[in-house]
Amino acid sequence: MIVYEFKVKAKQLQYQAIDEAIRTAQFVRNKCLRYWMDGQNVTRAELYRYNTKLRSEFPFVKDLNSHATQASVERCWSAIARFFDNCKKRVRNSEVSSECKTNSRQQIPGKKGYPRFKKNTRSVEYKTSGWKLLDPKHIKFTDKKGIGKLKLIGTWDLAFYPKDKIKRVRLVRRADGYYCQFCISVDVKEALPPTHQTIGLDVGLKEFYTDSMGKAEPNPRFYRQGEEQLKFHQRRVSRKKKGSTNRKKAINKLGRKHLKISRQREEHAKRLARCVVQSNDLVAYEDLRIKNLVKNHCLAKSINDAGWYQFRKWLEYFGVKMRRVTVAVHPAYTSQNCSNCGAVVKKSLSTRTHICACGCRLNRDENAAINILNRALGTTGHVGTWILDPNASGDLSPTITGSPCNSKIGL
Ligand SMILES: [Zn+2]
């Protein structure tokens, strides 16, 4: 699945129509959520039926394409499903799993994520109906919201793919305008010769990442710069009177800044990830979601968070595309264990060098990166975070005695 995004050019009235469609999509989602909360054991099918009822009850819901309202129901359902899923996995707020107590079942820290009402939805999603591609640069929305014909600005070539491969069309509102996304269901693969290289990555605060060869990739300058600019614009917003036009303008400026920075980061993450995947057959990295919650809770709010997330996303994307193996390993003790002999060498966050009794002397992050790579090589085949999967560990646990943590992920 690939997503092509275009900027949309249209008249003011059409933008208002898009806003109205987005509002309707949000209305349907929230109504469904309310229905689920009030009812008992509401199923997905019941939500679909409720959607039909909404359509007959509210004319403005009926105006939106029927598959688009269905897509809103699905959004609502996926929020509910995620909540149930988290409950099943027994996600907990406390930091139980950092110690890996001898619980028979794995517990993952984090919130359960009870679904919430949305008040600032930014997009509406159409499926395969309700729109028509007039030519590769124009799209017409045919439902009764009155969006009409939109001009698409961008260099992607939609004509390259058969029209039935376009599975979803999304209209997105951002601080600097409106965008149209096309989700195209195609398998893009790049055939590359094997490189006979493997790599482990340790993402950090000081460097963007350090790899198992000892190479450090620095944080780009715009990370800090962007942070300062955001603060500046944030202050401007807070000084303006609530509800005033000037405040609105300031909020828009802040939004644009956010957009600019997130685009820069996305580009950076994408470029790096492509490089790494291209030159290695196996890429190992920590499961950062857990790392942030378990390992260094107080640092989790770091400016790097978003960057890491994007980086990992692109690593996995390119991994699939270029047929390379990407492994997310459990982050426990990667920086404390010695990569040479496996002994535990305790060190605080400020200790930058790893010195072990066995004679191993490495940069702290390089040591961690080697551990990550070793752990990946040891667990691949049970790819990724298998240790956290309750089913997988449930099947295995009877055969393992002692602390589940040490016996499963020890080196
Ligand atoms: Zn050692």
Radius of gyration: 25 Å
Question: How many helical stretches?
Answer: 12
- Share in helix: 40-55%
Strand order of the largest sheet: 2-6-7-1-5-4-3
Listed once per kind, the bound small molecules are:
zinc ion
Strand segment count: 14
Determine the structural class based on helices, strands and strand pairing. alpha+beta
Shape verdict: globular
Mean pLDDT: 83
Indicate the low-confidence ranges by residue numbers: 93-105, 392-411
Helices and strands, in order, run as: EHHHHHEEEEEEEEEHHEHHEEEHHH
Distance between the termini: 37 Å
Q: Describe the largest sheet.
A: 7 strands, antiparallel
Counting structural domains, the number is 2
The portion of residues forming beta strands comes to: 15-25%
Features of the shown structure:
alpha+beta, seven-stranded antiparallel beta sheet, disordered C terminus, 2 domains, globular, 14 strands, five-stranded mixed beta sheet, single chain, binds zinc ion, 411 residues
